[in-house]
Amino acid sequence: MAYAAYVRNDLDDLMRLRLFALLGLALLAACGTFIDTQPIQRHYDEFSAQVERHAAAGQITWVAAQSSIRNLDRDTKTKLDSTGSYHSWRYDIWDDEYHAYTISLADQLDRKQISFYQFDAARKQRWSEIENRRIQLGNQRALIDAAQQRRRTNCTSSAVGLAPFQQIETTCN
């Protein structure tokens, strides 16, 4: 019974920390029309680290930790969008995929089917895969846009370099 109360109080602390982070984001948003996301990223990273420390100590489950991180990521985007300020924080289908994957890994970690090191390596690998796909799609989109522009203006375009560092060169007649 005392353990349940301890865990509940700990979860309350996590909710307070999350609320504090969101209030901090609102204050940052009120400072101007352009929001530099570095302080927001720092809040996100600190929150993630703290939640994961609680999970590593056994105070909360890994699923609860990863769910809290996903919720903060999504709520940060929602909160920044509601301010009407420009920001570069995004939460999209790629983030959904990543967070769903880490939550499923966290479930395996909670059931002791994988070690923390396997969990950590798998989530980092998935993030790299997602980023590479995002870059490749961006490059494909740029090539398609360049081809459409070439058809309209009688210009030629070519990709120079290796992905993800490709550059598009355009020559017009």
Can you put this structure into words, describing what you see?
There is one protein chain. It contains 5 helices and 2 strands, in the order αααααββ. The protein has 173 residues and is mainly α. It folds into 2 domains: 1-91, no CATH class; 115-173. The longest helix is centred in the last third of the chain and has 38 residues, at 116-153.
Describe the structure concisely for a colleague.
With 173 residues, the chain is mainly alpha-helical.
- What is the gyration radius calculated from CA atoms? 21 Å
Largest beta sheet: what is the strand line-up? Answer: 1-2
Q: In oligomeric terms, what are we looking at?
A: single chain
> What is the β-strand count?
2
Mean pLDDT, to the nearest integer, reads: 79
Biggest sheet record: 2 strands, antiparallel
Q: What structural class should be given to the helix and strand makeup? A: mainly alpha
Number of domains: 2
| Mass-distribution shape | elongated
Order of helices and strands: HHHHHEE
List low-confidence stretches: 1-7, 27-34
Helix content: over 70%
Distance between the termini: 79 Å
Strand residues, percent: 5-15%
The number of helical segments is 5
